[in-house]
Amino acid sequence: MKEILRRGITGVIYVVLLMGTVFLSSDAFDFLFMVFGLACLYEFKRIVHLRNYYVYVAYLALWWAFIYFVQDKVLINGLMLLTITVDLALIAFLFSKKAGEFNTLQKFVIAVLYLGGGCIFLTMIPYKQEGFSQFLIVGIFILIWVNDTFAYLVGRTLGRTKLYPAVSPKKTVEGSVGGLIFALLAAYFLANYEPSLTLTEWLVLATVIVIAGSLGDLLESKFKRLANVKDSGAILPGHGGIWDRLDSLVFAAPFAYLVLNLFSYVS
C-alpha cells in the first residue's frame, strides 16, 4: 500500500510538472526537456559504462542548434532520418538473441541520437503547427499515458500470452492490444480538442506512438536486463529514473515527428 501511495504521489508531481511547463511557456517546456535529456544520458552512461563526457557536449550542441537556430528543413529531416536509422538498428538489437556488445563509438552514437535525438524531436513536435501547439504535445503525452495505464490494467486482469518474456516477463499480448484500443479511443476524443489534425490523422498518430512507444519500453528493459539492474535510476520514488519514465516518449518522438511531416506533405 505504501509503495502504491509513493508511486501515485510521484506520478502526480511528474504530470503536474509536465503540464505546468507546457502551459507556462514554450521556453519552460524546452528547458525541461533539455534537462530530461541530460538526465536520460546520465542514466544511460551508467548502465552501458560509457565513461567520457563528450556525449553531454554533443547533445547540448545539437539541442541548442536545432531548437534555436537551424530552420532548414533538409537539415532537420536529415537529423530525423539519422535518429530513426539508429532507432531501427536498436529494434534489430532488441530482437537479436545475441547479447550485443557495443564499442565506445557505438554507445556514443546511440546516446546522442536515440536519447538526445528523441528529446530534441519531442521538443520540436509542438512547433510543427503555427506557434507553440500546447494541445498537440499534451495529446501525445495522453496517448502514451493511456496506453501505458491500460496495457498494465488489461494485462493484469486478462493477460495470458507473454509478449516478450526474454526481455520483459510481465508484459502480455492482451495488455498491449488493450493499451492500443484505449489509446485509439483517447485519440477519438483528442480530435475534438486539437482540430489541427483530423480524426484519421489522430488515429494514425496514436497507432504509431503506441507501437513505437512499446518498442522503446522493451528496448530500455533489454538494456537494463543486460546490465542486471531493475531501474535506470532512483530520482523518482517508486518509478525509478527519468529514462524509466521517458523510454516510450523518447523512442516514439522521431517517428511521431515523421508522421506529422507526412501529414503536412499530404495536406
Q: How many H/I helical runs?
A: 9
- Biggest sheet, spatial arrangement of strands: 1-2
Name the poorly predicted regions.
none
- Rg calculated over all Cα atoms: 18 Å
Q: What is the string of SSEs from the N terminus onward? A: HHHHHHEEHHH
Structural class: mainly alpha
How much of the polypeptide forms β-strand, as a percent range?
Answer: under 5%
The chain-level mean pLDDT equals: 90
Q: What is the overall shape?
A: globular
Largest sheet: 2 strands, antiparallel
Helix content: over 70%
- The tally of strands reads 2
CA-to-CA gap between the ends? 50 Å
What does this entry look like structurally?
This protein is mainly α. The chain is 76% helix and 3% strand. The protein has helices at 2-24, 26-48, 54-69, 73-95, 104-124, 134-158, 173-190, 199-227, 242-266; strands spanning 162-164, 168-172. It has a two-stranded antiparallel sheet with strand order 1-2. The chain is globular. The mean pLDDT is 90.
Describe the SSE topology.
Layout: H1 2-24, H2 26-48, H3 54-69, H4 73-95, H5 104-124, H6 134-158, E1 162-164, E2 168-172, H7 173-190, H8 199-227, H9 242-266
Antiparallel strand pairs: 1-2
Key words describing this protein structure:
267 residues, mainly alpha, two-stranded antiparallel sheet, 2 strands
In short:
With 267 residues, this protein is mainly α.
